[in-house]
């Protein structure tokens, strides 16, 4: 008798991603030197077959919640069969009393699954961009550092189809374009470091997999706190949409994310190719040539130029780009436009000048 369907589903999803990781590792070793630094604590030679290179390491980012515990269990089961070492990282944000004890418990649970190395990393959460964004920035910085410290080939994240649907709705509410509707990528980060195997698996499947395997899980109280936008969306917004529109809203939003990502990737490629044709010999953007481009392509070029000048991408919204775009399409002699990051955009002699103010 095979495993429970929920367990089979999460294992299959992880197995597919691990095969992709192995393919990428092999391609890198064949075609170029690895960009990753040597691990701080390389495996003991006795752990390796004689004459064989070290096995690649894949880490799982685990909060102790159902999604990431299900992911950790699937990684622990599948990785050894593919000759991959599996480890785990938990991040203590220090935002709740007893968070250090929770992190220690997660370390114990991951170790019990057979993961090695396993560690807890404590971070300081700032205030930039709001509490959710600040916690996310601190978490990813810690995961990046852990991946480099251990020379990990990849870090697995437990985002589910439900998380993807919430991300799409949040992007829609911001009104910041098709890229924000594309949600989370299955592969992201430096050299494809982050992998999200569960983007096609719903949250209930992950929770069920934990239950049938008797895996203890921790439910973060922040996930039910109405002070957080995502929490309100999860417990009020999505249920209201399903009540009004019927079941299938989450699946439809996840499909929207993939379709939007495909379109956004194509437009980004077009913009990257077009950018060289709209700059003069001095490298300045020529307004007449920009005007001739489709708006979606032109605004991507403008946005990239603003970010390169020093504007934080997370603070740059559609209204900022629209204001700069009017310097190209609705020129009436208007003055300079102040943008996030102390960046200034203005039109001078038919050129769009974007610089630090």
Automatic annotation (TrEMBL):
This is tRNA(Ile)-lysidine synthase. GO terms for molecular function: tRNA(Ile)-lysidine synthase activity. It comes from Streptomyces huasconensis. It is an enzyme of class 6 (ligase). Residues 285-352 form the tRNA(Ile)-lysidine synthase substrate-binding domain. Residues 58-236 form the tRNA(Ile)-lysidine/2-thiocytidine synthase N-terminal domain. It is found in: Cytoplasm. Residues 34-54 have a biased composition (Pro residues). Belongs to the tRNA(Ile)-lysidine synthase family. ATP binds at residues 63-68. Coiled coil: none annotated. It comes from the Bacteria. Keywords: ATP-binding, Cytoplasm, Ligase, Nucleotide-binding, tRNA processing. InterPro entries: Rossmann-like_a/b/a_fold (IPR014729), TilS/TtcA_N (IPR011063), tRNA_Ile_lys_synt (IPR012094), tRNA_Ile_lys_synt_N (IPR012795), tRNA_Ile_lys_synt_subst-bd (IPR015262). Ligates lysine onto the cytidine present at position 34 of the AUA codon-specific tRNA(Ile) that contains the anticodon CAU, in an ATP-dependent manner. Cytidine is converted to lysidine, thus changing the amino acid specificity of the tRNA from methionine to isoleucine. Residues 27-54 are annotated as: Disordered. Its main location: cytoplasm. Its EC number is 6.3.4.19.
């Amino acid at each position: 008798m095979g495993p429970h369907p929920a367990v089979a589903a999460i294992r299959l999803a992880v197995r597919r991603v691990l095969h992709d990781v192995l393919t990428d590792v092999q391609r890198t070793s064949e075609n170029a030197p690895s960009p990753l630094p040597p691990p701080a604590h390389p495996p003991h030679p006795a752990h390796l077959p004689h004459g064989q290179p070290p096995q690649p390491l894949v880490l799982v980012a685990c909060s102790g919640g159902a999604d990431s515990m299900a992911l950790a269990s699937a990684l622990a089961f599948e990785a050894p069969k593919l000759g991959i070492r599996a480890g785990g990282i938990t991040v203590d944000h220090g935002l709740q009393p007893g968070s250090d004890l929770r992190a220690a418990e997660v370390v114990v649970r991951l170790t019990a699954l057979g993961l090695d190395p396993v560690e807890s990393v404590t971070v300081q959460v700032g205030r930039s961009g709001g509490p959710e964004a600040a916690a996310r920035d601190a978490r990813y910085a810690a995961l990046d550092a852990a991946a480099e410290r251990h020379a990990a080939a990849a870090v697995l994240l437990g985002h589910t189809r439900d998380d993807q649907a919430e991300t799409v709705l949040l992007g829609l509410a911001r009104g910041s374009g098709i890229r924000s509707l594309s949600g989370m990528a299955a592969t992201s980060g430096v050299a494809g470091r982050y992998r999200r195997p569960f983007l096609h698996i719903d949250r209930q499947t992950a929770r069920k997999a934990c239950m049938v395997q008797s895996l203890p899980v921790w439910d973060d109280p922040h996930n039910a706190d109405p002070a957080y936008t995502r929490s309100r969306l999860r417990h009020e917004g999505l249920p209201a949409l399903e009540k009004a529109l019927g079941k299938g809203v989450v699946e439809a939003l996840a499909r929207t994310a993939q379709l939007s990502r495909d379109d956004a990737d194509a437009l980004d490629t077009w913009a990257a190719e077009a950018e060289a044709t709209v700059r003069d010999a001095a490298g300045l953007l020529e307004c007449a040539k920009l005007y001739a481009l489709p708006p979606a392509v032109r605004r991507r070029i403008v946005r990239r130029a603003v970010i390169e000048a020093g504007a934080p991408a997370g603070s740059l919204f559609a209204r900022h780009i629209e204001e700069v775009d009017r310097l190209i399409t609705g020129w009436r002699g208007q003055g300079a436009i102040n943008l996030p990051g102390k960046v200034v955009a203005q039109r001078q002699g038919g050129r769009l000048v974007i610089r630090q103010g």
